[in-house]
Amino acid sequence: TIAFVAFIIKFIIKKPLIFDIRDVWPDSAVAINKLSKEGFIYKFFKKVEKYIYVNADYLSCVAEPMKEYIRNLSQKDNIKVIYNGASDELLNLKINKSEFDIEQNFYYTYAGNIGHAQDIVTVVKAFSKFLSDSNNKNCYLKVIGNGPEKDHVMHTSKSLFGNDRIIFKNEVQKKELQKELLSSHVLVIPLIESDIFKLTIPSKVFDYMPFEIPIISTIAGEGRQILLKSDSNINTNLTVDDLAISFLDIFTNYKNYNSRSFQNKIIAQNYTRANSNIEFIKILNEINK
Q1: How far apart are CA 216 and CA 234, in angstroms?
Q2: How far apart are CA 215 and CA 228, in angstroms?
Q3: Interior angle at CA 109, CA 92 and CA 148, nearest 5
Q4: Which string of DSSP letters, residue by residue, matches 188-222?
Q5: Do 121 and 153 touch, CB atoms closer than 8 A?
Q6: For the residues of 123-171, what is the DSSP string, one character each?
Q7: Model confidence over 212-227: pLDDT tens digits?
Q8: CB burial class (10 A; 0-12, 13-18, 19+) of residue 180?
Q9: What is the DSSP letter of 272?
Q10: Pairing assessment for the beta strands 234-235 and 215-217 based on DSSP bridges
């Protein structure tokens, strides 16, 4: 709804309006079962969504499939993809690959929002199944962050096999988070299956790849395509059985996955925030002609 404030200012000062879309609403709320497509709120905000797309002077978004979605809804071509991108700080981070050898303990890590879209409950259940089936006593799952589902996830974890090897931590500062990720052997990006989430790319893709660590993800769309450009990553389904198999696969064959994980940073260098800034400047130059 902040767009309405922007349209008022646009009218008063007679300046063009650029609207940046990170997620598609209200359909994202439908995807996590917080809105019904039959309800008044959804139908009202679908009209709001279309109004914004049609009346903004320029639109930017985070992925090619999202661009096509917006174009189909607005029937306009004033849309540019500006990827979230990897930061220069992460791309310049010095990585000591010897840190990723299997030592006494082996860590899988998820860091981020613990919400409905991530379904961390399924992740911890899958990890429990992996531990139960393979009896890998030195494997741990770290869940770092907060969110509306955290209490539910922690409660579920207490009833699972290997609960003592599922570690919950609150949000940490950026430097501390980097240390947590650098001490991990595998990073995890879970996302529930939904046509609407296929339109976007989780920013975690670009936040994880510069660390040169193998990644297990359950994402679809362009984000999946980017991750699978690297032979060090696994993309699977967000189910207990499929995730458990992936946990086992990457642990059993870790030497191979880890030896190829340098590819992640190379790929991330094609999606930098510096390049995204250049694309945004192009928009400014175009609308100021």
Answers
A1: 5
A2: 10
A3: 110
A4: EE-----TTGGGS--THHHHHGGG---EEE---HH
A5: yes
A6: HHHHHHHHHHHH--TTEEEEEE---TTHHHHHHHHHTSTTGGGEEEE--
A7: 999 999 999 999 999 9
A8: middle
A9: B
A10: parallel
pLDDT tens by residue, 33-89? 888 888 899 999 999 999 999 999 999 999 999 999 999 999 988 999 999 989 888
Q: How far apart are CA 49 and CA 198, in angstroms?
A: 18
With tokens 């609150």, the residue in question is 170
Helices (H), the chain: 2-13, 27-31, 40-55, 64-74, 88-91, 120-134, 150-158, 174-182, 204-208, 221-227, 240-252, 254-259, 262-268, 273-287
- From the list 203, 9, 229, the residue with the least C-alpha distance to 90 is 203
Note the residue count of the chain.
289
State both tokens at 57. Answer: 């002077």
* Cβ neighbours of residue 227 closer than 8 Å, sequence gap 6 or more: 189, 205, 209, 215, 217, 219, 233, 235
- Supply φ then ψ for residue 139, to 5 degrees: -95, 140
HSE value, Cβ hemisphere, 13 Å, CA-based, for 70: 32
User: Looking at the predicted structure, is the pLDDT value of residue 277 above 70?
Assistant: yes
CA pair distance 15, 40, nearest whole angstrom: 33
**Residue 225, C-beta contacts closer than 8 angstroms, at least 6 positions apart:** none
